[in-house]
Amino acid sequence: MSGCIDKEKGRVTNRMNNKIEAEKELETIEINLLLEGIYRYYGYDFRNYAGPFLNRRIWNRMRAENIATISSLQERVLHDPTAMKKLFRDFSINVTEMFRDPGFFLAFRTKVVPYLREQPSIRLWHVGCSTGEEVYSMAILLHEEGLYEKTRIYATDMNEEVLKEAENGEFPLHRMQLYTRNYLAAGGTTAFSEYYSAKDNHAVFHPFLTKNVVFAQHNLATDRSFNEFHVIICRNVLIYFDKILQNRVYHLLHNSLSPSGILGLGSKEGIKFANIVNSYEEVDPIEKLYRKIK
Q: Which GO terms label this protein's molecular function in UniProt (predicted)?
């Protein structure tokens, strides 16, 4: 009798597992069709973004839109540009703060600035700049090191809306306490409050910090290199891509660096497993700073 019960339990378990696998396969098909439709109709390429990242953002948008299936979401975004705009914002990576990971900026001061002092002019590309907090941070650092006047910072993101926010240079006033702590930990040399003025509930950063900054739209998934840079900062962007797109971007960044140029990555990123690993030497392995050697 117990043997029959065990066999029946096994059959039930198999049917459940088969159903789960079928649902996963259907979800994968629907997501692929959604991303392909977005690419063909709007020109935005999310096809090589990391699966878990896409799944979270897609299901969050479905709940917000009260939609039951991914196919229904596809129909909506292809026929309603407003819905596409919302999903595009969901796919954009906008997690940032001023002097984020202060150790990175401190290492930049001590290990990269001496190299930059030797250059007659400096071109720096900040990839995936989001709303601009880290761009202003770098401008402040270079100003304090006496390098800002000979620097041109190219700050790019695929999202035009966040670029407009970055250009405005206004950030919530309540975040200044955190940003001040980050600034001091990053080796700041003056009072952080000197760089902004309070206006209502916002801190408005002084315009001189963006006089040498060019904000422009650039999509790592589809666009090519547009200059040669002494420094490229691409932090906490690659973690959202799959291996195929990661390697493609690594080659784009490598081709965009001048000889002996510096690449800065995020704390959870690195070139150890990239196919261009032998093209760099470590400047600071903990803070993920690398120098191009070939």
A: S-adenosylmethionine-dependent methyltransferase activity
DSSP structural state of residue 145: T
Measured between alpha carbons, how far is 17 from 22 in angstroms, rounded to an integer?
9
Please tell me whether residues 135 and 44 are part of one structural domain: no
Alpha helix (H) residue ranges in the chain: 2-42, 51-65, 70-79, 81-91, 102-107, 113-117, 133-144, 160-168, 176-185, 243-256
Residue 70 belongs to domain spanning: 2-91
The residue among 63, 91, 119 that closes a domain is: 91
Confidence of residue 8 (pLDDT cuts 50, 70, 90): low
Count how many domains the chain has: 2
Name the pTM for this structure: 0.85
Closest C-alpha among 137, 209, 139 to residue 168? 209
Structure tokens at 201: 């509930």
Residues 139 and 60 in one domain: no
Residue 16 lies in a domain: yes
> What local confidence, expressed as pLDDT, does residue 272 receive?
85
Quote the pLDDT of residue 46: 92
Cβ atoms of 121 and 150 within 8 Å: the answer is: yes
C-beta neighbour count of 46 within 10 angstroms: 24
Instruction: Looking at the structure, tell me whether residues 133 and 193 fall in a common domain.
Output: yes
- Strands of the 202-205 sheet, one edge to the other: 170-172, 202-205, 196-199
Task: With a cut of 80, say whether residue 12 has pLDDT above it.
Answer: no
Q: Are 171 and 89 in contact (CB under 8 A)?
A: no
